[in-house]
Amino acid sequence: MKICFVAPRIHTNQHAMLDALDVEDYQVFFMALTQGHLQQLHKTIKPVIINKLSLPFFKAPQLQLTSYRQIKNELSNIKPNIVIIRDVASVFSLQTFLACKRLGIQAILYNQHTLEAPIKRHIKLFQLIKIVPHYRITPVRKTNMVHNSKTNSWYVPLPIPTQNDISTKNIHPGEPLKVLFIGKYTLSRKNHIQLIRVIHRLSKEIPIKLTLVGVGYLPSRPVIQEITQYINNNNLQEKVTLLHDVEFVEMAQIYKSHHLFVLPSVREPFSISPLEAMSFALPVIITDDNGAVGAITNGKNGYIMPANDEDFLYEKIKFIYKKNILSQLSVNALEDSRSLYNKEIFFLYFNKTLENLKFNSTSNK
Question: For the chain, what is the mean pLDDT?
Answer without folding.
Answer: 92
